[in-house]
Amino acid sequence: MRLTALFPLLCTLVAFILSLLCIFAGSKRGYIEHADIFTLNTSMLGRTTLHTSKSSSSLLNSIENSIKGEVNDLIADVAKALNIHDFYSAHLLDYCEGYFTPGPVSNKTVDPDRNVTRCSNRTALFHFDPTAAVQKELKPGISLADLRWPSAIKDAAHAVEIASKAMFVLYCVGVAAIGLALAGAFLGIFSEGRAVPLINNGLCWLALLALGIASAMVSVIMSKVVHEVNKHGNDIGISASKGKTFLGMTWAATILMLISAMAWIYEFVAHRRRKTSYVFEGKKGRY
Questions:
Q1: What residues have CB less than 8 Å from 38, skipping those under 6 apart?
Q2: Separation CA 1–CA 283 (nearest Å)
Q3: Would the pTM of this model clear 0.85, i.e. be above it?
Q4: How far apart are CA 111 and CA 242, in angstroms?
Q5: Which of 239-263 are b and which e, b meaning 16 or more Cβ less than 10 Å from the residue's Cβ?
Q6: Tens digit of pLDDT for each residue in 124-133?
Q7: What's 239's DSSP letter?
């Protein structure tokens, strides 16, 4: 029995769980919704546009008139008046939307909490388009042009579309490789040969490669989209934030697979040394 194989087994098991969480986080309401790739905050959308836009939309003008003079409630009311949600959080399989409670702005005693009201259908090779999501929910008679929505945000989302879909494939490859490595790790505990450590090491490196590339891609996607939204969306009251929880999970899984790969290399080398030692001691005993 190879008890030292318990260490890579444990690392692989945790990496397997983290990788699955990365894929299925936010796939339905109440399921790790906070582990998003990035979140689009639209709770302040229109807070300046309503006073500066020269749109001819009568509905937009009526909304402005209905909230004019209510400065303290303006931020909380505009998004709902436009029929959009306070935030949209992007995940690997879908996106979720909802409202901040008790309100979008924090004070000395209360910080806003996210209340998810709906998640889209789970879709393989999903790509979140913030522009399309907001446009779909706007009240009839109002367009993104009325709100001066920056085209740079749509361009940024389209620029990472292929990467987003490739990222999903890489996570699937990584999870499959980790699953096989996990089965091999169980076998490695009861196996004394060198073949199992060698095969497990190869599976760990495959999983490491897939997760490493996927983690790097999600880091780039986060930075690209968040940067463009914050750069071009500030004037109309929208912002974005990176999903630090998701980032932590995906890189943790990647590092654990690196540790597992190194552990199996140790198991391979240690077995060879033990075998050499047994042979040497056997020859010495005959003399």
A1: 89, 90, 221, 222, 225, 226, 240, 241, 242, 243
A2: 25
A3: no
A4: 18
A5: bbbbbeebbebbbbbbbbbbbbbeb
A6: 999 999 999 9
A7: E
